[in-house]
Amino acid sequence: MPEQLLQFLVTGITVGSLYALVGLGFAIIYNASDVVNFAQGEFVMLGAMMAIALLSAGFPLPLAALLATLLTVLVGLLLERFAIEPAAGAPVVTTIIITIGAAILLRGVALLLWGKDFHPMPAFSGDAPIHLLGGSTLLPQSLWVMGVTVLLVALVRVFFNRTLLGKALLACSFNRSAAQLVGINVRVMLRLAYGLSAGLGALAGILIAPITFSSYEAGIMLGLKGFSAAIVGGIGNPMGAVAGGLLLGVLEALGAGLISSGYKDAIAFLFVLMVLFFEPTGLFGHKAAERV
Amino acid sequence: MKDNQWKIILAAALLMIASLAGAVEPIKVGSFLSVTGPASFLGDPELRTLQMAVDGINAKGGIKGRPLELIHYDTGGNAREALNFVKRLIQNDKVDIIVGGTTSGDSLAVIPEVEKAGIPFISLAGAVDIVEPVKKWVFKVAHTDRMAAAKIFEDLRKRGLTKVALITGDGGFDKSGREQLLKLAPTSGITFVADESYGNKDTDMTPQLTKIRSSDAQAIINFGFGQAPAIVTKNIKQLGINLPLYQSHGVASKTFIDLAGAAAEGVRLPAAALVVAEQLPDSDPQKPVLLAYRNQYEAKYGPVSTFGGHAYDGLMIAVAAMERADGADKAKVRDEIEKTRGFIGTAGVFNMSPTDHMGLNLDAFKMVEIHHGVWKIVE
């Protein structure tokens, strides 16, 4: 039993790290614009698919990963410039619907480019499992996922807390007009938020593709899970989203292992509902004060 | 101006119809396939095969001088759509025979309509229920999941393995396969020591497999299709489980080997002879049929799949029956399909009878093992 538990935890933390990265993307855009970007899952898919395409075109892995991330960032910036910005001033709901439309468009383009098949990606450092105590095993790729997630989360934290740019972005989230008044270019900040989210999503996709494969549809479920992570952690709180993602991943693995694998997703979403019932602002969210 | 244009187009269309009426009446073959949707990787090669085969037959002068005309609709894997399209094929298009029904769900949904209308229907789907109990007008050409189960058990017995862990997805194919495996196990001397499931869109099955690892299973059976079995295969290696793994005929395509990579090594599964055509002995009567179909398909579209082969078998059985019936009279064609004996198709040798509307036996499956990234027949 204890060795099983350890295996479930390893699985949960690997998958949870991924949810955390996707959730982080949601939180950053929400912070900057109060918009839930439902194309976040598609950024993940695009990152993975482009990396796979570049790899098969003969690029070495680091270069393919870098290019795929940059291209996805470009897609994020274009999305902001040509779909979100023209609707500036529109109600938040309208903008959210635009992101849903963008998600469908991106999925369609991916379908045309790469077809309906699932595509494999080689693991960064081999497929030989690492044996832990009691027969549990760990994939080298899982270490990559966890390691890079820790690194990215730390970088995002430093960015928001220590750099002027990050603080400016944070200022937009607290009060957009006040931020504009002190000379922050809100429009540029919004672009930055989309670019950053797209980049994080792409990296998440590239990290996980060797474990799960990728296809044009792969972003839907990941997007939903990342969104759940962001909500559980209190939407708008980047570190909350990370905690929410890890919690969700571990819960899923434990649910599948200890209760029933058929109810894996149900357990995760039930947890999200419970959190919303008892802590409507999320586990780590600020208590919202309605302004009058 | 616009109105005039329409009149001209209408007149032209009428002229064309009039000129066609003078020609020989074609035999209409109706089809409904899941060319898009989750089962598109089945329906897509099926449609291509039908088009290719119909063109081939017409180039040779059709059936008794009458060309074939293929009328097909895409169900998108939706059983309700399938029923609507079959009604349309029967009532509006007035087809002479129906060859189609990519998924078991699509095929089962249209059976009452087909039986009511009295039109021969050859299904391309897998479920046993399609022809059991026997329905007067319904036939099928694809292997059943029960045959796959029996073939896997046969191989397990040969290796002296009796305690088996089962892991299946939540799709129709998976569930039906699981049912057949559980039903056949007691009479085959197999005991299931674990019975796990996963969602077909899941990306990680290690929790379920961890449970299997701590059971006393001697082998693992995974029944499913799509990417999930490939993930299961990788997860098994990843957890360091060294048990023989059996997959179903649902993954008998190159895609599975590509996805699972090195983890696929040593995986066994029952597959149609099409995937190992060139390894068959020259004395095998199926060999020339398989190679001919494969070469023709690959010259036109790329890698062949067993699913397209089912469409080929279905159409060719229908064509042979129409040749024997000397036309497309529905009742006569039905009787002739039922009399199909020794027909060599891509799925095996068909011997139909009034009590067996499929006509394949266990020999139609070959047990294959993945060896250095290619299929090898296990003897």
How would you describe this structure to a colleague?
The complex is a heterodimer of chains A (292) and B (379). Chain A contains eleven helices and two strands, in the order ααααββααααααα. By secondary structure, chain A is mainly α. Chain A has a single domain, classed as ABC transporter involved in vitamin B12 uptake, BtuC. In chain A, helix 2 (40-56) runs parallel beside helix 4 (92-114) and helix 2 (40-56) packs across helix 9. In chain B, helix 2 (40-59) runs parallel beside helix 11 (306-325), helix 5 (145-158) packs across helix 6 (172-188) and helix 11 packs across helix 12. By secondary structure, chain B is α/β, with parallel strands linked by helices. Chain B is elongated, with a radius of gyration of 22 Å. The interface between A and B is medium-sized, with 33 and 34 residues.
CATH fold-level topology of the largest domain in chain B:
Rossmann fold
Q: Which structural category do the helix and sheet elements of chain B fall into?
A: alpha/beta
* DSSP summary: helix tally of chain A: 11
Taking pLDDT < 50 over at least 5 consecutive residues as the criterion, the unreliable ranges of chain A are: none
Number of strands of chain A: 2
Q: Structural class of the secondary structure composition of chain A?
A: mainly alpha
Characteristic terms for this protein:
heterodimer, A: 292 residues, mainly alpha, ABC transporter involved in vitamin B12 uptake, BtuC, two-stranded antiparallel sheet, 11 helices, B: 379 residues, alpha/beta, Rossmann fold, four-stranded parallel beta sheet, 45% helix
Q: What order do the helices and strands come in, and which of them pair?
A:
The complex is a heterodimer of chains A (292) and B (379).
Chain A: H1 2-33, H2 40-56, H3 61-84, H4 92-114, E1 130-131, E2 137-138, H5 140-162, H6 164-174, H7 176-181, H8 186-212, H9 218-232, H10 238-259, H11 264-278
Antiparallel strand pairs in A: 1-2
Helix pairs in contact in A: 1-5, 1-6, 1-8, 1-9, 1-10, 2-3, 2-4, 2-8, 2-9, 3-8, 5-6, 5-8, 6-8, 9-10, 9-11, 10-11
Chain B: H1 2-22, E1 27-33, H2 40-59, E2 68-74, H3 79-91, E3 97-100, H4 104-117, E4 121-123, E5 138-140, H5 145-158, E6 163-168, H6 172-188, E7 191-197, H7 206-213, E8 219-223, H8 228-238, E9 245-247, H9 254-260, E10 268-272, H10 286-300, H11 306-325, H12 330-338, E11 343-344, E12 349-350, E13 365-371, E14 374-377
Parallel strand pairs in B: 1-2, 1-3, 3-4, 4-5, 6-7, 6-8, 8-9
Antiparallel strand pairs in B: 10-13, 11-12, 13-14
Helix pairs in contact in B: 2-11, 3-4, 5-6, 8-9, 11-12
